[in-house]
């Protein structure tokens, strides 16, 4: 059976202040365009089942335009693939905290052929293809007790559809960042991918296999809190074939996001820093036009920030969709040592030193090096927020 697996659509996502000639936020339009392309490509692939693994919308209360567009696209999908079931679960982004808010995704139950699970862990049986899709939306994982994740031995094909973080050694080795806040973790031993025909995951935004038949599809556009962590690598969706146990990733045409190699301004003159920025910007193939670009410069003193060629930076900002020149001053954390001269330590070094030497592990399940690495990533993300 051929299964189209999409996840983390984040429809209605907005960023920056650019708007299209139609008055729509440019990034919202990018995400909508990626979704339209994904729908068109899915139709062309003629799958027998379509799964959407959560975070259809970026927020619990998306705009009317985002809702209308999603409704149009799902309707068009079902109209072009009559009789092909679509199973959608809610993610952390589109699950309200309070049950009485209601979930906007339930609207899509009005489209014949669409099955939507927003709160409970429950199997959805699809008679037409003799397939059971065990659904684990975000809210189900938030409950105190996770039900036993058991395939149904009486059906032809068993699928697990989940929105959350997978724990265990394969995941720890492969997931480059612990996914956005609000996610819940389920151990891979609890899932037992070998018991299922396919495990379709959502929540982690970079396409990743955790077993030959267990995949995160990744997002269809770059919508993470820290998009620089997903700058590299393609966005798209998967087509999984249960018969051959093979997955094909279908890349979508998304906006270029470039995180330029970092520059250190330590010991450089203003002219040298200017030249470094220029070289970095001009090295982008095809230029900055319409792209989202970041250049981090560390250890840049205040006076150098003032004297940089800001006119040229403004021109690049106008040309790019978004150009973020991230100027970070030298970190001055004074540590007073007894009898020693004043020594400077960066905040990162302080955190690392504390975690390595002074912090006692509170559980044997915690791996110190992994924790330090996470600490570094969080500091990085914080730096990005300014
Ligand atoms: Mn997401």
Observed structural traits:
6-stranded mixed β-sheet; 386 residues; 10 helices; 3 domains; single chain; Purple Acid Phosphatase, chain A, domain 2; globular; alpha/beta; binds manganese (II) ion
Word description of this protein:
This protein has 386 residues and is an alpha/beta fold. It has 3 domains: 250 residues, Metallo-dependent phosphatases (Purple Acid Phosphatase, chain A, domain 2), CATH 3.60.21.10; 71 residues; 53 residues, no CATH class. The protein contains 10 helices and 20 strands. It has a 6-stranded mixed β-sheet, covered by helices on one side. A 6-stranded mixed β-sheet has the order 5-6-7-10-12-11. A hairpin with a 7-residue loop joins strand 19 and strand 20. Helix 1 runs parallel beside helix 2 and helix 9 packs antiparallel against helix 10. The protein is globular and about 70 Å long. The termini are far apart. The model has no long low-confidence stretch (mean pLDDT 91). Manganese (II) ion binds next to loops.
């Amino acid at each position: 059976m051929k299964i189209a697996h999409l996840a983390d659509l984040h429809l209605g996502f907005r960023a920056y202040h650019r708007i299209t000639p139609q008055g729509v936020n440019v990034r919202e339009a990018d995400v909508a365009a990626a979704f339209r392309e994904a729908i068109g490509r899915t139709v062309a692939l003629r799958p027998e089942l379509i799964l959407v693994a959560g975070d259809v919308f970026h927020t619990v209360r998306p705009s009317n335009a985002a809702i209308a567009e999603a409704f149009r696209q799902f309707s068009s999908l079902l109209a072009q693939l009559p009789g092909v079931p679509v199973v959608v679960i809610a993610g952390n982004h589109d699950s309200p905290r309070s049950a009485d808010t209601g979930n906007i995704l339930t609207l899509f139950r009005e489209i014949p052929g669409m099955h939507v699970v927003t709160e409970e862990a429950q199997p959805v049986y699809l008679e037409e293809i003799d397939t059971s899709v065990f659904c684990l939306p975000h809210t189900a994982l938030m409950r105190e007790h996770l039900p036993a994740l058991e395939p149904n031995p009486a059906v032809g094909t068993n699928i697990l559809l989940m929105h959350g973080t997978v724990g265990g050694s394969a995941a720890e080795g492969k997931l480059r960042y612990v996914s956005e806040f609000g996610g819940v973790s389920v151990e891979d031993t609890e899932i037992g991918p070998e018991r299922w025909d396919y495990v379709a995951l959502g929540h982690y935004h970079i396409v990743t296999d955790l077993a030959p038949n267990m995949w995160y599809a990744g997002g269809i556009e770059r919508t993470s809190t820290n998009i620089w962590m997903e700058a590299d690598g393609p966005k798209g969706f998967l087509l999984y074939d249960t018969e051959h146990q093979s997955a094909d990733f279908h890349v979508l045409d998304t906006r270029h996001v470039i995180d330029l190699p970092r520059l250190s301004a330590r010991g450089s003159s203003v002219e040298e820093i200017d030249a470094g920025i220029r070289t970095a910007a001009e090295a982008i193939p095809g230029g900055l036009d319409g792209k989202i670009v970041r250049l981090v410069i560390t250890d840049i003193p205040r006076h150098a920030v003032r004297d940089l060629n800001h006119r040229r930076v403004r021109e690049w900002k106008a040309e790019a969709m978004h150009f973020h020149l991230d100027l970070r001053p030298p970190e001055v954390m004074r540590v007073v040592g007894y009898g020693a001269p004043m020594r400077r330590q960066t905040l990162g070094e302080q955190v690392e030193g504390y975690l390595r030497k002074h912090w006692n592990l509170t559980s044997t399940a915690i791996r110190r090096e992994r924790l330090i690495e996470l600490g570094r990533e969080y500091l990085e993300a914080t730096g990005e927020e300014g």
